[in-house]
Structures
1.
Amino acid sequence: MKQLLSEHEMRKILDLALKKQMDADKNMQGKVYVDHLRDAAGKMGISGKELNQAIDGYFQEKSEKKRKLIRLGIAGVVVLGLFLLYFWLSRPQTYKNPIRVVLAHKLKADHNPVKESNRFGLNQEKIYLHITWLDIKKGKYSVKYRWIDPKGKMIFFDSYQLTPDGPNYRSWSYYTPKNIDLPGKWQIEVTLDNKKVGIFAFTMEKELSQTILLQESTFAYKGEFKAVYAKEVKDNNPVNQVLQIKLGETVTAHIKWFDIKGAHIARWRWIHESGELESVETLDFNPSGTSNWGEKASVGKTWNTWDPYTPKKKGKYTTEIFLDDAYVTTLNLDVVAP
């Protein structure tokens, strides 16, 4: 028997089929209404071919037990038969070759996961399950992903063919969270040619802060730096550091890079607490030459960059800073009435 169905699918099939049979004819005993099972399985998205294979195996087993059932005089063979079918369908068969599994917020252009995490939010774009099949042989395989919410309901089903040409073959499935999804512990059941690969769990939170999302979903800059808000810049250094300004004033988000070399692009994103992105500024610089601001510095030592901005509204602001698309840090500013 090759078919493997998840427990929540089997419970749903059995519940639907048994209810339909009991409603159809409460006086009939000793018969399994296969049509009812097929109807229930169809509602679960399970093909007739898959269920027929399981039913064939069930009846083969059932015939071997028939004499014993008669001797015992057991009533309600239908219920017992359904549970025998359940156990037959859910017999575990495990994929035994090694794999590497990563849950991540997104993939890079080369289809590798950006950063591993087991915490996600309903307010993000996608959740990825990325698998590297380390010792898989050449051929064709069918991989299935079942995304299951905290109540055991299958929310999303993903299936496609793998055609690896050698080991270290990669595949992935992603889900886009919806506002109606339940927060809590989620699971992803994965099978390959109906063999159980594993069940991979993660936590779905109602909302992840934008700062956490940036930290989780982008590369992190690993170099040394210092970032501050300042009223002005003199000799390339910040002067009069602040965390609060009055509406109408200009503030500078200044960042000092230590021991940095080569050409880079810095980016500042100024965001109001309402979520409005008010400004995006980029700056090309190269410590071996002169930056757009006219600053000169020693190669491989320190380099100063900054972005002046005049906020448009009162309230709390964040300034997200990136270097070559790597997340660096987030600064927080209060803008009060003049």
Note: The CA atoms of residues 227 and 255 lie 4 Å apart.
2.
Amino acid sequence: MEKDNKHSNELKEKKITRKQAIKKAGLAAFSAATLMVLLSEEATARKNKRRGVRNCVGGHSSSSGSSSRSD
């Protein structure tokens, strides 16, 4: 039990500044937003794969009506 008290006292003594807390919260928010974007892009890619849509260079799908080729 004495070991538990020592551990809890160490946690209480370890304080961070407001600036550090904001920085950590910002980093966590940025990481969460990045994951949301990556997961939504993956879901879109899977949905397009099921539909048979191909991705070309530049992010344009091959199902568009315009063509830049000259015959």
Note: The chain is about 65% helix and 0% strand.
